[in-house]
Amino acid sequence: ATDGVKLYAADHGTGDIWEIGLTTPPSERIIANVNKPEGLALDNEGRLLVVETGTSSLLRIDLPNGGGVTTLAEGLDLFGPGLGSPPTWGFDGVAVGPSGDIYLSGAGATVVYKITANKVR
Q: Residue 119 has what DSSP assignment?
């Protein structure tokens, strides 16, 4: 995920979420550690959404206000833990529409979840 100034990337194995500044020279730092992160997206308020497959949850990291982590949804039917290695046969992703609605793929149930903007905690 990127806002054009910073790039956010996740390491599925370690759980680290990286913030990489697209400056010269580039900067980098770990902003969170979660359980098997996959999809990343920025919401309309600059907060980072993370699909946490290890707990079947959707998280929000409040980047503009110090990086606090909030669980937005739990009990999602995601792809599953696989063989303990990074998933190469499936991926649970997240995207945000112009209205602020969040869309999350649930490969385990072959569904797309929609979280309406006014229903988010």
A: G
For 117, other C-beta atoms within 10 Å of its C-beta total 13
Q: How far apart are CA 101 and CA 117, in angstroms?
A: 5
CA torsion sign for 74, 41, 47, 115 is negative
What are 18-63's pLDDT values in tens digits? Answer: 999 998 898 999 999 999 999 999 999 999 999 999 999 999 999 9
pTM of the predicted protein model = 0.89
Alpha-carbon distances of 21 from 6, 7, 65, 111, rounded to whole Å: 4, 6, 18, 34
For residue 22, the one-letter residue type is: L
C-beta atoms surrounding 85 within 10 Å: 9
pLDDT band (50, 70, 90) for residue 109:
confident
Calpha distance 36→23 (Å, rounded): 28
Stretch 100-104: mean pLDDT: 95
Structure tokens at 7: 């790039």
